[in-house]
């Protein structure tokens, strides 16, 4: 049985479940599997060149049981320079416009921006191509900013999530962002702006809770890491399956708080009271899956 919400109707999907665009883990096969199952598969393009992103989207589309099924692309777009955090980094390596070319040419249904709002000209290009824009937010003020700048959907991710947003709890953040979104309409559809919930969402209970709090769907990441189609390594998958609440810790990455597995490396960082810089006494940090 499918659950219909304004989001499922907007995206043309059966279930209000979106795969989070996790770097490496949200592979083309996993995104295709989620779209094939009636959700919306999203690939994580963090650090990819335009050529690499194009190859991944070609593979994703080849894996769809129906070429008309929708999919999304997630990029990290923090502001760099000006009054932005000095530690912010351009993960597109100066090739944002070329990456957007790829997103448009491959016919993505949804573009997702994390750790920052897309520049005005990017929002216009995506909307002109009929592509919806969702922005990740970790506080009501972030939602206000993103909606004012013209995004169609905001994803309110509580501090329980593995992504890079903030530490406000899911149960507090989602309804607060829903209240903010009520004041805005989607520039693309002309209909009310929508809120997707994230942060520890892993089963039907958390989906039901999200809908009860006013969200129209959920953004799910870690739950999919252990999937057969995931690009995560075997050790990473086993760590997720075997994890308990006691094994979760908070750390700083991309200068934003995130929840992570309490590995020996994370424990070393905590004991040394260091942040997760690229080089520490605990060893070199890497975004690649564990081997």
UniProtKB/TrEMBL annotation:
Pfam family, any one: NMO
A molecular function (GO) term: nitronate monooxygenase activity
Keywords: Flavoprotein, FMN, Oxidoreductase
Source species, domain of life: Eukaryota
Protein name: Uncharacterized protein
Organism of origin: Aspergillus terreus (strain NIH 2624 / FGSC A1156)
């Amino acid at each position: 049985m499918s659950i219909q919400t304004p989001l499922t109707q907007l995206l043309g999907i059966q279930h209000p479940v979106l795969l989070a665009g996790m770097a490496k883990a949200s592979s083309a096969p996993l995104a295709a599997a989620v779209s094939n199952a009636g959700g919306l598969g999203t690939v994580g393009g963090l650090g990819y060149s335009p050529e690499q992103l194009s190859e991944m989207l070609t593979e994703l589309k080849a894996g769809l049981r129906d070429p008309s099924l929708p999919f999304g692309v997630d990029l990290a777009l923090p502001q760099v320079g000006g009054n932005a955090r000095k530690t912010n980094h351009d993960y597109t390596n100066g090739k944002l416009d070329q990456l957007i070319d790829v997103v448009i040419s491959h016919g993505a249904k949804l573009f997702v921006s994390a750790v920052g709002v897309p520049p005005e000209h990017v929002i216009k290009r995506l909307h002109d191509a009929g592509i919806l824009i969702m922005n990740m937010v970790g506080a009501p003020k972030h939602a206000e900013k993103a909606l004012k700048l013209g995004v169609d959907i905001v994803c309110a991710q509580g501090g329980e999530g593995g992504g890079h947003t903030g530490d406000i709890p899911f149960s507090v953040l989602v309804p607060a962002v829903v209240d903010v979104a009520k004041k805005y309409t989607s520039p693309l559809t002309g209909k009310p702006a929508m809120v997707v919930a994230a942060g520890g969402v892993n089963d039907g209970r958390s989906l039901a809770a999200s809908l009860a709090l006013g969200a129209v769907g959920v953004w799910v990441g870690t739950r999919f890491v252990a999937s057969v189609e995931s690009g995560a390594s075997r050790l990473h998958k086993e760590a997720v399956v075997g994890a308990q609440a006691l094994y979760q810790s908070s750390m700083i990455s991309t200068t934003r708080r995130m929840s992570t597995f309490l590995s020996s490396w994370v424990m070393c960082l905590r004991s040394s009271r260091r942040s997760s810089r690229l080089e520490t006494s605990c060893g070199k940090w890497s975004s690649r899956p564990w081997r």
